[in-house]
Each structure stands twice: as structure tokens, then as C-alpha cells.
Amino acid sequence: xxxxxxxxxxxxxxxxxxxxxxxxxxxxxxxxxxxxxxxxxxxxxxxxxxxxxxxxxxxxxxxxxxxxxxxxxxxxxxxxxxxxxxxxxxxxxxxxxxxxxxxxxxxxxxxxxxxxxxxxxxxxxxxxxxxxxxxxxxxxxxxxxxxxxxxxxxxxxxxxxxxxxxxxxxxxxxxxxxxxxxxxxxxxxxxxxxxxxxxxxx
Length: 202
Ligand code: ATP
Hints:
Helices cover 55% and strands 11% of the residues. The protein is an alpha/beta fold and 202 residues long. A five-stranded parallel β-sheet has the order 2-3-1-4-5, sandwiched between helices. Helix 6 (134-145) crosses helix 7. It is globular. Adenosine-5'-triphosphate binds next to helix 1, helix 6 and helix 9.
């Protein structure tokens, strides 16, 4: 696809729910979380680079990445965290972009939780933010994941602020209402994006 939409929003805002509604309209999705796992999967160039750098201790017995160990290494050493980001971020960027270009739908959606935080908005033609209040983010995520409110509050605090995210958004979906209300907003935006994609097509 020529036209790339970046979909983002804070934790528990409804990104996955919204993405699935666009998918129901025939729009292909590229999920940043999936790609972040693919670039370090068994046998990948990324995993080989990590093994060369940290030693084979960083692998589990089956040869796959020991994520807990890697998390610990970069948590306790800022320079290692930077090294890892410098390795993975360009790979993730490249893979997302080529997957997006290869998508066959009229436009394609990159679903990226940290779109603005990681500067990935530069890859897309337009950004769509799913917005709810922090109270609702906590309520829905606690209900979904059975985690503590404090844990979610910490994650919210680590992400870009609601105000800044909304200020950067080209388009906004208000997800405080019911799913029927969400569908209506998605379908309206879908028509709009079809028109934008058609005017960008070669
Ligand atoms: P994360 O950032 O954690 O991956 P997300 O942004 O992808 O989350 P979802 O998983 O889509 O968010 O939604 C969070 C939870 O809220 C899910 O359990 C989902 O079913 C629920 N939810 C989403 N939209 C609504 C809504 N309009 N009304 C009620 N529940 C909703």
C-alpha cells in the first residue's frame, strides 16, 4: 500500500480493538509488537548479533532469546540498553516499512504503541490516536490483565502524556463510549482514509 496510517494510543486505550475494526473493513495491519519479536526470533540476524554481543548465556536451552535475562542486562546498564536500541530500532523500522509497502489493501495501518515516543510517526502519512482518560485506561487494563492499578499508573507515567499525544495526532478516536460508537467512528474514518489513499495512489 502507498498510504500508511500510524495507529497509536496509551496502554489499554483500545488500539487492538480499533485495529480489528479496520481489519474487518479489509485493511491490512502491521503490528509493531509482532515485528519486534520477529527481528529476534530463532535463527534471525538480530538474535545472532545479540548472542555475539552478550554471549550465549543470553539464550535459553532451546536457542531462543532469554528475554528476562536480556531485560535484566539492559535494566542495570544504560550503555547496553542503548546498544540494543541501536541494533533493534533500525531493524524494526525497516521491517515495518517493507511489510507496509507489501500490503495489498487500499491503505495499511501500522499499529505502534510507542509511535510518538520512538519517533516512528516519521514513517507514516497520517496518525490516528485512540483516546480515553487515564482513569478509564486503568479500569479497562486492570479488568483485562488482572494487574494492579499502580502497575498501570506507572506504565501510563512512562508513556507520552495524553495532552502531548492528542496534540501530535492528525485524527482522534474517542473510545470512552460503547463499541457501537467506536464502530461508527472507525467506519467514518475508513471512508476518509480510502479517499486520501486514492488521491495519493500513483
Ligand atoms: P495495550 O496498549 O495494553 O496493548 P490496547 O490499546 O490494544 O491495549 P485493547 O486491548 O484494544 O487496548 O483494549 C483494552 C481493553 O478494553 C480490552 O479488554 C478491550 O476489550 C476493552 N475495550 C476496548 N474498547 C472498549 C469500549 N469501547 N468499551 C468497553 N471496553 C472496551
